[in-house]
């Protein structure tokens, strides 16, 4: 007695099309959960901002409209010069601190057999780039504290 067929295949057989459809459904289902969470997050923020706008009191006074910082009343103009060199020092520190982080994985790979010469050459190239950057900063006078 022949088995009943569904769509040209036997009832108990699983085709590659069925497997592909099942994998695609699982794939898109996982992304639909992420999308649903993103929509819920955006709605939560929108509701929070809307509730804040509806519930807050709006009573503008001249005192409330003044610029206020650190408990000092504003006097004079609002433009002030800032020393850029402090930011340059901070930027140089961040550059060399982040670059020094790359030394730790290098040290662990350097200890592995077969990677010694390659990683040593790569690290000297890396340190050469750092030295060129430091030399450039020195030549520009960035490192002189006045």
Radius of gyration: 32 Å
Record field, number of beta strands: 2
User: What strand order characterises the main sheet?
Assistant: 1-2
Put simply, the count of helices is 4
If you average the pLDDT, what whole number results?
77
The biggest beta sheet reads: 2 strands, antiparallel
Give a short overview.
This protein has 146 residues and is mostly helical. The protein has helices at residues 16-55, 85-101, 103-110, 116-139; strands at 5-6, 9-10.
Q: What's the arrangement of secondary structure elements?
A:
Blueprint lengths: L4 E2 L2 E2 L5 H40 L29 H17 L1 H8 L5 H24 L7
Antiparallel strand pairs: 1-2
Q: What does this protein structure show overall?
A:
- The chain is mainly α.
- Helices cover 61% and strands 3% of the residues.
- The chain contains four helices and two strands; from the N terminus they run E-E-H-H-H-H.
- The protein has helices spanning 16-55, 85-101, 103-110, 116-139; strands at residues 5-6, 9-10.
- A two-stranded antiparallel ribbon has the order 1-2.
- Helix 3 (103-110) runs antiparallel to helix 4 (116-139).
- The longest helix has 40 residues, at 16-55.
């Amino acid at each position: 007695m022949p088995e009943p067929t569904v769509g040209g295949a036997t009832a108990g057989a699983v085709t590659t099309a069925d497997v592909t459809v099942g994998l695609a459904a699982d794939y898109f289902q996982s992304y639909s959960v992420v999308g649903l969470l993103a929509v819920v997050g955006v709605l939560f923020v929108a509701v929070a901002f809307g509730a804040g706008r509806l519930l807050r009191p709006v009573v503008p006074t001249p005192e409330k409209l003044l610029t206020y910082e650190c408990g000092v009343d504003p006097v004079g103009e609002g433009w002030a010069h800032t020393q850029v060199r402090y930011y340059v020092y901070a930027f140089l520190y961040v550059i060399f601190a982040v670059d020094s982080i790359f030394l730790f994985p290098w040290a662990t790979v350097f200890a592995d057999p077969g990677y010694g010469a390659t990683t040593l050459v790569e690290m000297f190239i890396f340190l050469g780039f750092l030295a060129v950057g430091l030399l450039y900063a020195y030549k520009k006078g960035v490192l002189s504290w006045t």
